[in-house]
Batch of 3 targets.
Target 1
Amino acid sequence: MPTQTLTLRQDAAKAWFDSLRNRITAAFEKLEAEAPPELYPGEPGKFALTPWGRPAGGGGVMGMLHGRLFEKAGVHVSLVHGPVTEQMAQIMPGKEGQTFFATGVSLIVHPVNPRVPAVHMNTRFICAGEDSWFGGGADLTPVLDSQRSQEAPDAVVFHAAMKAACDPHHPDWHAKYKAWCDEYFFLAHRNEPRGIGGIFYDRHNSGDHDRDFAFTRDVGEAFLNIYPKIVRHRMDEPWTPEDREEQLIRRGRYVEFNLLYDRGTMFGLKTGGNIDSILSSMPPVVKWP
């Protein structure tokens, strides 16, 4: 691939991820302001944006909000580059010694209200040597057992949004990437799923860069459209101490998954990413009974 073409693709991906980050943080701050004060006292939270640099090349901006509706929300963008080290080659086989480039947006939300589901989303563009691909997805994690069925209202609308993002690009992609999500976000040591799923894709290269980039953009747009709707639908619902207890225990499963199985966590640590940003996915308060 000509260097100029690759550079243009990298620049376009980075610009898109920055734009998506800006719109997501604005939407979350709007929800913070709308949350009913009788359930969420205090001042609405705002994102603090903290740039960071990577000595081996690149860096990013960590965005963190600690609010009254969102107990912890992280929305981050990054662009890292440099040689593929021996350690990195474990997750990029055959690329040791070649140059890599990775840019993306990633987020995690842990709401105060146990009736509002937690959520994770990321989309990324990676180049290594002469190869390039997209990855990402979004998955929803209700923390109350009563909301964790595939037939629960939040699950139904979330899956519909992800399907709508996939279908215009290929009729098979939603089924494929939904199944991949169910398989990936599974805690084998507990024999249980982390949440109700969504979609997950990696090393996505159909041979048509423009289509793959459009698909990745649609995943981001679908998330930006559906998750604030779910939050608005749920945030007026009161909760009990028992609900909070269930939430804190379920958050423990989130920690277990991220430390044992999560590829994004491993990739960030092995590429010398910002540790605070990488581990910001951890819930702020958690319990193991």
Note: The longest strand covers residues 70-83.
Target 2
Amino acid sequence: MPTLLTSLRRRAKALHRNYRGAKMVARALASTDHPLLAHIIPMRRCNLACTYCNEFDDFSKPVPLDEMYQRIDKLGALGTSVVTISGGEPLMHPELDDVTRRIRANGMVAGLITNGYLLVAERIQRLNRAGLEWLQISIDNVNPDEVSKKSLKVLDKKLQLLAEYADFHVNINSVVGSGISHPQDALVIGKRAVELGFTSTIGIIHDGGGQLQPLGDEERRIYHEMQALEKSSFTRINAFQDNIAKGLPNQWRCRAGARYLYICENGLVHYCSQQRGYPGIPLEKYTRDDLRREYMTEKGCAPHCTVSCVHQVSIFDSWRAPQRPAASNFATPADRELVQLK
């Protein structure tokens, strides 16, 4: 159990995070001209090989630190609010702490998505010192199987270490959907997360294109029961996942390429991890004009998309700037003025 001093320090840090978050929300509502969230990949290599994942390999080298600094500084220059470090497995990058510090030095919120296997007490304390503000682990099952080794049985000791040492916010995400043999495991995982003082969320596994695979009856029951465990947060301010659970499409304006950026290990900007190649522009050459163009670009994959982080940032702009097919974007100067609503 954490000491009283540790608990007070964590509470103070949480208040500061909430204050910064509120300022970023206000800025997001006031201006459409900057990214709200960027996922950046410091290396594609992973120490696991989950069969449903298409975001890893077993051979890539870490992106050199100087290149990571240039990409982070560019995101800062674009006015990005939050940068999440992902992979692959980002904890395999030997200079991840320096990457985290650089994000904070640019005034951006620093987050991390990891499989958790490499967490030990000393590594968690280093993340504290680097200024990490939140961390997410996705746990797919109670016991490892041929689909995923990200199991509660393997990771529970890592969760206990996080409960004892982490000053940053921790969220545990469990999943239901295609490839998950025991959907009831999500409830076990969620309850354990709450018991340890973490937040708990549930996601729906998408296919290789990030598209919807409707849930069965039992999966939908568990999904709704899991929602009762989720603490009130920004991730629950939308009905996207509820429609996905019912097998229904969502009608929405995807702002990927503008409000959300996915920066691959090669430094290219993509709509998301599942739609690589679009727009496929090097981050170093990405401009405000690119942000404005993609803000207005209608995405054909949007109705059956399950990539929740893109859903969430797009909520800020659901009521403004209707989109057009790519060929007709910015046909007139008035289109540019529409995008720059303040």
Note: The chain has eleven helices and nine strands.
Target 3
Amino acid sequence: MALKPAEPQAVVIFGASGDLTRRKLLPAFWHLFLEGLLPEGIAVVGAARTEMSDDQWRDYARDQVKRFAREEPSDERWDEFAKRLSYVAGEFASEQCMEHLRERLEWCDRTQGTNGGRFYYCATPPAAYPAIVEGLGKTQLHREAKIVIEKPFGSDLETATILNRILHSVFDESQIFRIDHYLGKETVQNLLALRFANGMFEPIWNRRYVDNVQITVAEEIGIEGRGAFFEQTGTIRDMVVTHLFQVLTVLAMEPPVSFEPDRLRDEKVRVLRAMQSVEPGKIVRGQFIGYRQEPDVDPHSQAETFAAMRVYVDNWRWAGVPFNLRTGKKLTRKVTELSLSFRQVPYSVFKGTEAVPPGRDALVIRVQPYEGISLHLNIKKPGIGFELDRAILDFDYDSAYHTPLIEAYETLILEAMARDHTLFTRADEVERAWEVVSRVLEDPPAVHFYEPGSWGPVEADELILPRHWHVMLPPEARER
């Protein structure tokens, strides 16, 4: 189905001078403009405390697009896009700032055809959310509007509940879009197609055939100067409750009765409600050696830069199947993948021979890099005799489609502008995710140290014994 431009609307980016805006949002709006996916009546208003004129904001936006976008800002097309950019400076808690914003939006309606449509993107630290929401409510700028809230949605169950209460005091749930960019990734969305558009997988997508599930989100980089953030947040709050749990719910959910957004989200919430609370003994917290020497980090810090845990989904489909999750900084390489390892054959006809199966069958979804899907099987090795070997049946986007994948933020912005909640999280979903990890956050186990460039502390390997973590080799290594 071809995508159509959304209705006319004025976009307001709160936190317009911040890192998220320059790296992701400005390039995303630029690409959507080039593809003709933005409405004819569109304006992008930057809002931040930093003092800038409209022309300075346009110059700033062009510099960031040139640096971070796939397509550089060519003069003719950029000039057309830049006409839609303007800027409002001020403190979000200030009534004067919100009145100034109201005047600018009315100007956008008159001169740029935005026709009263409003789309607010909160690209600020979470501490600014209440002031933004309350300010929009006081000035009546919330009516018929859409608002995007970036993660983290609170720092625990209590703060998430308070944030939802603040949002609902001004906005209806249908107006709120809680964004987790992992749900916008092409390969995560393709998991829905893999499961529900193919008859061959559904009969084996359950405890009878699946031995264990693994989700790995590993990064080579460190904390990138965000010591103060990590000291307050840590990896569990930053990654597990958001990205990993979101991917887990898509992987484990029951087939929805339709692709209507709330029916899809109903099934994701049911997975979270079926999950056992994570016990401190079923999680390993790690910290890379050298973290305590980073700027703004406590020299005795117990903040985790790595987390591995085993969780269970107590329902008819998944009872007894361990879901092993891990994520961390300063690991061996950047990789995000999901794997389902299947049970061994019930009886080996090769018993008493030298033909020993070298491994379990596995279905691996590579989210990044080398995006694709692989099926790992045991086969006969060519030659005299009967020796078993491993084979990989592989699909990858690059060779199949020869086109770059759309950025997650582009997909999610477009969906939110069109009021489609399919790829966004609901209030009850957020609160239940925090509830699952509440015990660990209240009584966290001590961190274990690990060498930068490793796969994390050895305790993470011990956590899932007798199984082992699976990580797909990059194509160049597999070819050798």
Note: The chain is about 35% helix and 20% strand.
